[in-house]
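Practice problem: predict the structure.
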Amino acid sequence: MGRQAMMDSNGWKFIVTLVTAACGGMIFNLLNTPIPWLLGPMIAVLIGTNIWKGKYRWPGQIRNSGMIIVGYTIGLSMTGTALREMGEQLPTMCLMTVILLLLCGGIAFAVSKLSDTDFKTALLGSIPGGLSQVLALAEETKGVNLTVVTVTQVVRLMIIVIGIPLLVFSPVFGQVHDVATAAVTLTTRHDDWAGLFPNILIFAPVCALCAVGGNRINFPTAFLLGPAIATAILQGIGLHGPSLPSGLISAAQLMIGTYVGLLLKPDKLQRKARTFTFAILSGLVLMLCAWGLCELLTLLHPVSRSTALLSLAPGGMDQMGILAHEINADLSMVSGYQLFRTFFIFFAVPPLLRLIFRISLKGSRSEQPQ
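Answer:
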């Protein structure tokens, strides 16, 4: 096949992939599922690649662009209020995050012993980070079954996103669902493209340069954390970071979800029923652990149980922030705790994982007969 013919073929594969992903996003959006433009393209492309093998292509550069956009939105959350909240409660944040990660490690150990999933994959499947962030970390970790990690993380996210609101609005927590407030919350996702300028002309190139530069020096999940740190610094020196239109955020989710959908290999997922069963059980246990930590946090600080639960819920920062806004919880505390856990996971967890895996590898070698 000539070079031109190959380029034409790749172009058609890209168009087929884009159309499939967009259809998946629209369907999930109509069904009002959580993060529809991430899960919809992921599942649509996954189905498509199993029906029409070899017809799909999605360049990694597009996924990286989506990660830069998500990183920028994370950086926007690092306001002065959120940073002050993090500073005042830093010891408690460290304690709660470490306890939660230890509980996740215990869940992963139990899953690895009760199933045929290796501990490395089970641990990454249990880490309570944002979906796109954890998948980026899993992709960079050798010897991990990305399909199992994705299934476990998606099931956990669905349980948290559905279960936490039910818990918050249950008689146990006593919150009331205000439809009018919810409508106001949803309308905060605007489509004012003109409002991006002129500051976006500063933020965009700086975020892109930090992402590329961080990737060259092997910074962990550079295309996500590079822009997040750059945005926080620019805001810290007095520049205002404009909020992104909802359409651009949806496009970023599509860029990432499509890429992940192509990475998934269902044929490599052994014992599917068992994998889904353990994913559901581990998600439920993790939510109960978050509830227990929420009760502990209310004893340490004078905060409402709803604020404590949303601060410690192992779900996405954006979903917990929207829910916190709706019930008038302490939004700065919720975003502060969620943001601290996100950065702790990506700065502290990778070296800890490497240490754990190195120790486990030495242990397995020492057990082998000489």
